[in-house]
Amino acid sequence: MFERFTSAARAVVLRARQESEDLRCGHVGTEHLLLALAAPEAGSTHELLRDAGLDAATARKAIPRLARGAQRPLGPEDAQALESIGIDLDAVLRRLEQSFGPDALRPPPPAPRRGLLRRRRPPGSRFTPRARKTLELALREALRLDDRTIGSEHLLLGLLREGQGMGARVLADAGVDLAALRRATEERLRDAA
């Protein structure tokens, strides 16, 4: 499938891996793909996302916050129970992060696994199932639009179509109209053809 990727789309995938490493993640997720698509070097997807109301800096700030919410050690019921005895869970979590750093409650990344011939995989080289699905959906979007190659715009369409990963949650949290972004992306592809 990667042979059909344009050089811009390949650059986005490579940048997503770099974003994963920069954020010290043990995987490449849809959030890393979104960061790569929002980077100024991404070209038209950067412009599309910026016009929709999301820039790379905003996305980069939202990811740890949303990830903490997804990995919160205690649920809302626990917070209510603790509040009933006078303990503010949010204040405790903030204090922990102030004392021990913003990643204090984050589980450590998994140890690198050995691949074929006992070589270590580079950190952040494994794509999450949702990120792999996004890449697959990018191919399907290209086929649906009768495009011979998969460009960064198709990657954005795949991310929007997947709709459940951290990347889509960052977009929704930023107030981006996903349907309008999809229409603008398709329009950009038609204009480029």
Description:
By secondary structure, the chain is an all-alpha fold. The protein has one domain (2-71, 124-192): Clp, N-terminal domain (Double Clp-N motif, Orthogonal Bundle). 62% of the residues lie in helices and 0% in strands. It has helices at residues 7-22, 30-38, 44-52, 56-70, 76-84, 89-100, 129-144, 152-162, 166-173, 178-192. It is elongated and about 65 Å long. The chain starts with 6 loop residues before the first helix and ends with a helix. The relative contact order is 0.19. The mean pLDDT is 78.
Secondary structure layout plus pairing:
Layout: H1 7-22, H2 30-38, H3 44-52, H4 56-70, H5 76-84, H6 89-100, H7 129-144, H8 152-162, H9 166-173, H10 178-192
Give a short summary of the structure.
The protein has 193 residues and is an all-alpha fold.
Tell me the span between the first and last alpha carbons: 21 Å
Quaternary structure: single chain
Q: What string, H for helix and E for strand, traces the elements in order?
A: HHHHHHHHHH
CATH architecture: Orthogonal Bundle
Quick one: overall form? elongated
Number of DSSP strand runs? 0
Q: What's the helical proportion of residues?
A: 55-70%
Assigned CATH superfamily: Clp, N-terminal domain
Unreliable segments of 5+ consecutive residues: none
Give me the number of helical elements.
10
Mean pLDDT: 78
Helix/strand/pairing category: mainly alpha
Strand content: under 5%
Main pleated-sheet profile: none
Q: What is the CA-based Rg, rounded?
A: 19 Å
Counted up, domains total 1
Write down the CATH topology: Double Clp-N motif
